[in-house]
Amino acid sequence: MPAISPLVGEPIKRVDAERLAGVLKALADPARLRLLSLIQSAPEGEASVSDLTAPLGLSQPTVSHHLRILTEAGLLERDKRGVWAYYSLVPSAIGAIADLLTPPRKRPTKRAR
């Protein structure tokens, strides 16, 4: 993820823009947004492909394809256990996207303790 937001008034480096665009492209699909939501709301904060096919109404290969794209974008982690793979959100990646897309004047200020 780029360290500088495209909204702070500083030019974003080409490589950072390409990386951010790839992540945003991965998020731009409604099925992928639903996958993130389903995984986050799962009881353990993780889900396997078989947990996700019925709620999405998609086939196993289609769900696996979407999970691969989200994993390659750095939004999900994959943990293989035996024959099953479980997916969970990468909270820091989701937070970084939110920070990059929030203009500095709109970000909540941190209070000193």
Automatic annotation (TrEMBL):
Pfam families from the xrefs? HTH_5 (PF01022)
* Domain HTH arsR-type residues, every copy: 12-109
Quick check: keyword RNA-binding in the entry? Answer: no
Name the CDD domains on file.
Answer: HTH_ARSR
Q: Which GO terms describe its molecular function?
A: DNA binding; DNA-binding transcription factor activity
Spell out the Gene3D superfamilies in the cross-references. Winged helix-like DNA-binding domain superfamily/Winged helix DNA-binding domain
Keywords, A to Z?
Answer: DNA-binding, Transcription, Transcription regulation
What name appears for this protein in its UniProt entry?
Answer: Winged helix-turn-helix transcriptional regulator
